[in-house]
Each structure stands twice: as structure tokens, then as C-alpha cells.
Amino acid sequence: MSITNQDCIFCKIINNQIKSDIIYQDNRILVFKDINPEAPVHLLIIPKEHIKNISEINSSNSDIIKHIFEKISELAVNLNINKDGYRVITNCGKHGGQTVEHLHFHVLAGRQLQWPPG
Ligand code: AMP
Ligand code: ZN
Question: Helices marked H in 1-118 — which ranges?
Fold first, then answer.
């Protein structure tokens, strides 16, 4: 059921046209390591369907968000980051600092993260 955007770097990762360090995948989502980690653990969770960002989420496709967050919770236990904690971020649009226009959730862990962001 994957809908691909040919110009999208994350769609290319999904379709194995670009290599990545994959942690987990199923028919709906892919989890891989960020190429430029900002913390000892820095994962990206993406839907296999090309959705631009959270602004494109609505009642017809929001099931994927449920699935992604259930998987994040499960992965956090498996990666042993749930006790010390972690941060989940999705950047949306220009002011949100989004650089890749395929919906993704960052999971950052393994050090004390600062707040607020810049
Ligand atoms: P954002 O700035 O929220 O759009 O996040 C995009 C993220 O994708 C950045 O943290 C990049 O380091 C990461 N990224 C870009 N290209 C790749 C790649 N080929 N493999 C893994 N991560 C990537
Ligand atoms: Zn895409």
C-alpha cells in the first residue's frame, strides 16, 4: 500500500534505492538511524506511505500515527531508553525546521536533552 514520491529521499530509503541503518520495519512503517545523530540514540520513524508532514494527517490516515507511537513505546523498552527517558519530535514546515518533506518522528535518547529548543 506504499505510495511513493520519486523525488523524496525517505521514499528512496523505503525502496532500498538509498542505504540506511534499519532498526525495524513492517508493512506500514520503517525505523532507521539518523545519518547525523544529535544524541547517542537518534532514530527516525516514518510511514511507508509518502505523507508530507503532520499537516497532511486527517481522519483518513491518522491510524498510522497510532501505530507509530505504539511502536516507539515498544522500541523504547527494547532499546532500554524508557527508564532514563527520551524525546519524540516531528518538525513541520519551514518554521518547524523540517528539512525532509516526508513525515518523520525523531526519537532522541542517551543524554540529558535541553529545553527549550532554539
Ligand atoms: P528534519 O530536519 O526534521 O526534516 O529531519 C530530517 C532528518 O533526516 C535529519 O536529522 C537528517 O540528519 C536526517 N537524514 C537526512 N538524510 C538521511 C539519510 N540518508 N539517512 C538517515 N537520515 C537522514
Ligand atoms: Zn517520501
Answer: 9-14, 63-78, 93-96
Residue closest via CA to ligand 1's atom 19 equals 35
Joined together, the cell numbers standing for residue 89 give 519530535
State how far the Cα of 29 lies from the Cα of 2, in Å rounded to an integer: 10
Whether pTM exceeds 0.85: yes
104 assigned to active site: yes
Question: For the stretch 37-64, what's the b/e string if a residue is b when 16 or more beta carbons lie within 10 angstroms of its beta carbon?
Answer: eebebbbbbbbbbbbebeeebeeeeeeb
Ligand 2 ion: Cβ-proximal residues, 5 Å cutoff = 5, 8, 10-11, 50, 102
CATH topology of domain 9-109: HIT family, subunit A (3.30.428)
Q: Does residue 23 come out as left (phi exceeding 0), alpha (psi in the -120 to 50 range) or beta? A: alpha
pLDDT tens, 40-80?
Answer: 999 999 999 999 999 999 999 999 999 999 999 999 999 99
